[in-house]
Amino acid sequence: MHLMFWRKPRHRFDIVVAKTMIDFSRLAYKDEPEIREELASKGFEFQAFLNDDETDTQGFVATDSSKIYVAFRGTESIIDFFTDILIVKTPFPPTRRWLFKPKAHFGFVNSYESVKNQLLDLISTLLLSRPYEVYLTGHSLGGALATLAAIDIRERFRPHVCVYTFGSPKVGNRWFKWKFNRSVRNSFRVVHDDDIVVWLPPGGFHHVKTLVFIDSNGNIEVNPSLPKRIIESMDDALAAISGSAIKDHFSKYYHKWITKNYEEHMAKMAKM
Question: Which residues span the domain enclosing 132?
């Protein structure tokens, strides 16, 4: 079934949305009762707790009056670690192509598919009730799962989809990247300074759009220039030796700098 909605123009990176998304990304690490309580306190309606014990995949679905929010938990257990290192590629999303076939990281796909039916059944039901936009998020492994879910939901139901990921690894091959970027019009891949996870995995994997870079002082730049990215890549190599490349991946630092920029934005708006 396809729900054909009118297409909207591309969204710009929105620090207010980013603040909600990083809050949800961190909330996805908590247990179901805590998730329910915090969502209720902020005026969101809890819809489902996504969980599969075998793959240790976890997330939740919530709604407000116009949006469905899907958040996935990042790497937290030894099972998650093995999910991350299963770097064989597998076809995703499904296609009849023999050539130029989109493929994604097998471990990520296996993890996503363990909760896929529960998620898609719920999304289908919710979209029948009203034309929600679907917002997806996650930190680390959660960002990879949000990326897979986003293109799956967009391809199946055709709603407006928006993705904010934080410290996401690379998800698929160049044809996955091409298909995702054509299908999901609004996608923001937030990277904190020297975060080592965003360099991974090696071996023909590529990042999807749109790069949102947070430097060491917390300044945010969307699609930084090529010279700046080259300088940052050189800095990344030194960070890997010093250990800061691991520290910069922690969700608390993503939260720190997104919150700082959000508060500065709100203060500026209040003066207008």
Answer: 15-271
The three-state (H, E, C) secondary structure of the chain, written as one string: CCCCCCCCCCCCCCHHHHHHHHHHHHHCCCCHHHHHHHHHHCCCEEEEEEEECCCCEEEEEEECCCEEEEEECCCCCHHHHHHHHCCCEEECCCCCCCCCCCEEEHHHHHHHHHHHHHHHHHHHHHHHHCCCEEEEEEECHHHHHHHHHHHHHHHHHCCCEEEEEECCCCCECHHHHHHHHHHCCEEEEEEECCCCHHHCCCCCCECCCCEEEECCCCCEEECCCHHHHHHHHHHHHHHHHHCHHHHCCCHHHHHHHHHHHHHHHHHHHHHC
In a domain, 56, yes or no: yes
Q: Is residue 229 part of a domain?
A: yes
**Percentage of the chain lying above the pLDDT 70 cut:** 87
Band of the pLDDT at 94, cuts 50, 70, 90? confident
* CATH label of the domain that carries residue 46: 3.40.50.1820
Q: In the chain, how many domains are there?
A: 1
Q: Residue 46 has what pLDDT? A: 98
The band of 227, judged by pLDDT with boundaries at 50, 70 and 90, is confident
